[in-house]
């Protein structure tokens, strides 16, 4: 990043242009999955109907090991109903709390499957943890595209730019399309705070720096979150906020909170959190681009659970 953050400067120019001209702003639909508190997004260009799907969810019943497609089919229905052409299937990171439905959606709707290029580090860490054999490539080749920090892309005529925002995992990315930033697991609603930073490869100090980087975008930037858990005293789920609101109100990282204060708070809080219910299936499948491990000779895929290793 350094002193001159050219990716951030480019993102700022893009957002200001989109604030000034409606045609440069996307239409956004959020789909909330109450089982995992995840929000998936369909983001499209009203001029061309080209669309990106961000962070989709495959339903998974851990007791029986059964997958199903209720959540993904709601997205298929929306895309079909609105005549959208899916060009991107984007993951903000390798999620630890739900399995991605990207391969299922790709088969139904098309689009290129993309994630941040640091996924290779996550594949390395979890490839070792799950003792995956040499048939599990740790080079990101399960994805169609790996985004680098500052890389630009298009959704129809809309401008997009990717920012590397590590901390929750080493590979987290935020994707800014027009004036809307899809920030993955960095910041949550102002009354809830921030994402945890204690998964393998996570780092609270890095997370703080990534969040402050996002919060130096223009105040009017719309932020769309990956999760909402409701905060005590709030009755409804919410997932849209702005840079300005976060800087004024975020209970963990509003303006004035120092890096050391944040790291102390985050580390203390993370020590009290249980692992997500679906961490083992999620990580194992998501590092493979959302595909189940290869079936064994009886045709069945298996999810492994490392015992006493995490
Ligand atoms: Fe996550």
TrEMBL record:
Coiled coil: none
A Pfam family annotated for this UniProt entry: Lactamase_B
Statement: the UniProt record of this protein carries the keyword Endoplasmic reticulum: no
Any one Gene Ontology BP term: hydrogen sulfide metabolic process
SMART domains, per the entry: Lactamase_B
UniProt superkingdom: Bacteria
UniProt keyword terms in alphabetical order: Metal-binding
A GO term for molecular function: metal ion binding
Span of domain Metallo-beta-lactamase: 37-227
The protein's name in its UniProt record: Beta-lactamase
Species of the source: Erythrobacter litoralis
